[in-house]
Amino acid sequence: MVRYKQTMEILKIMRNLDQVRNIGITAHVDHGKTTLSDSLLAASGIISEKIAGEALALDYLDVEQKRGITVKSANISLYHEYKGKPYVINLIDTPGHVDFSAKTTRAMRVIDGAILVVDAVEGVMTQTEMYLRAALEERVRPVLFINKVDRLIKELRLSPQEIQQRFVQIIKEVNQLIAMYADKEFKTKWQLDPAKGQVAFGSARDRWGFTVPMAKQKGIKFSDIVDLYKKGKEALPELQKLAPLHEAVLDMVVKFIPNPREAQKYRLPKIWHGDLNSEIGKAMMETDPNGPVIMLVNDVRIDPHAGLVATGRVFSGTLRAGEEVWLTNARMKQKVLQVSLYMGPYRELADEIVAGNIAAVLGLDKARAGETVVAVEYKDAMTPFEKLRMISEPVVTVA
Ligand code: GDP
Question: Are 46 and 77 in contact (CB under 8 A)?
């Protein structure tokens, strides 16, 4: 019942794009991407904290468990309130391993912002740079989460000054990368300023975090955190209450990641090579819910009960069950049988998903990751986001 209520609430919010964010989490392997996703999931109320503690919700594919890395993107909708206003944050689990750069780029196309996770002990590593670069090349705006701060306190036993120096160094290195890889107009604009709250610090595992403005507002001192750690495990709930991780991270997302309408305006010219002045181009630039349906599929998998599930971002129009659409790469018409949103690893049925949001669709059996779906009347006018590949990637079955 709670879940049903949340679904209805989320659908209502999704219609107002000011209250929507599409993001991913990206990190060097082992820096804490999965742990952060999981902790955010638990706090968003979509899955219970207890379950989240026992299983890493985003790592639910067999193949992932065997390889111990995140292979396939999964989408979840998080619910977050900021200054009394509700937001839906569509979180796409971007692949996190060097082998999967094509999939990474594809995932970047459907998000507008990325939480870059950096391990406070290891600092900026090769894959930090690789993923940040991939994000910036798709005009995905980064924010930073410096993770595993508990290790600086408990294991390395650094002084607050030493910890601060480490933070400063990491932020400096990330900003240098932003200056290097961002497009000209974003090199300065997207520099991260901790004083503004564009960097969060904390522990994804222990579920606490703060930004500078949040610490000021709540009167949190770093010494309070160190003192609570000295008390041991029993003090963790107190620490989590003092500095809730999800509040630090999701407030940062809501404040600094653009909403889908804002983002499509400057991202479209970079990620889509069709005519921006055409009817299709204008509809996508405006994120027009009344425009022709256009969706970029970033993830496809088989559900043994439901069949093929295609997940992607609706760039224009409103996706509804029962409508026929054109698959640009497969070159055929198919009928949308069901549309859903994601909550946790679950899909929840929706009447319609409007432009700017992430949707899961049943019925598009011939769609593969990278497919551009368009309203049938516009099939000859559509330039696909991605060209057809000769060898298609295998479709993963979810048990
Ligand atoms: P991913 O490869 O980026 O998804 O990293 P994981 O989330 O799987 O985390 C890698 C390892 O770091 C796991 O053993 C986690 O338990 C551990 N880890 C993640 N976050 C923290 C943290 O905040 N503190 C500590 N001490 N360990 C963490």
Answer: yes
User: Kind of pairing, strands 352-354 and 318-320?
Assistant: antiparallel
Task: For ligand 1, atom 24, name the residue with the nearest CA.
Answer: 148
Q: Which of 204, 241, 237, 225 is nearest to 154 (CA)?
A: 225
CA of 153 from ligand 1 middle (Å) equals: 16
- 3 state DSSP class of 295: strand
The torsion angle over the Cα atoms of residues 191, 177, 199 and 81, rounded to 10 degrees, is 80
Looking at residue 57, its pLDDT comes to 42
Tell me the C-alpha distance between 63 and 7, whole Å. 29
Ligand 1 centroid, distance to 201 Cα (angstroms): 14
Q: What are phi and psi of 357, to 5 degrees?
A: -105, 170
Q: How far apart are CA 58 and CA 41, in angstroms?
A: 9
pTM of the model: 0.90
Here the tokens at position 35 are: 């742990």
Which residue has tokens 């055409």? 278
Pocket of ligand 1 (CB under 6 A): 27, 29-35, 96, 147-148, 150-151, 203-206
Q: Measured between alpha carbons, how far is 356 from 287 in angstroms, rounded to an integer?
A: 6
Instruction: Please determine, for the modelled complex, whether the ipTM score is greater than 0.85.
Output: yes
